[in-house]
Amino acid sequence: MEKRIARYMALPEGKRQQIYERFKQIFDLRPEEKTKALRPLSEPERLAMEKTLQTLARLPKPQRELCISGFKKFAELSPGERQQFLNNAERWEAMDAKDRQAWRNLVNRKKLPPLPPGLNFPPTPPLRPKTSSLALTNR
Length: 139
Hints:
It contains eight helices and no strands. By secondary structure, the chain is mainly α. It folds into two domains: about 80 residues, no CATH class; about 30 residues, no CATH class. The longest helix is centred in the middle third of the chain and has 16 residues. It is extended and about 60 Å long.
């Protein structure tokens, strides 16, 4: 997986965006067009991609687009960040349903608890008034 992601990330930004857009469009293709699009893949890659596409196709479009966007974000993480994400995903899967729901409830709360003492963000510096170059030259 790391090799594939590295190969993807080595592409210019425009090419990565093009691949991303084409992947999103694959769900609008007719079955024969999908088959043609997947033809260049090796047999194991094609089977894995077909399985992934079937899973994503069952989702409502907004949720599917959110998943695809998540794949893009995952690919853009550094290798260390990706590993941390996968470790966290394993921990999430190891939790029982009750604990996962408790975490969902905590994250979805409208009001977050206050920061611990001493963990304040630095104050935002005051904005300086803008001076125009015209005003400076006419004095």
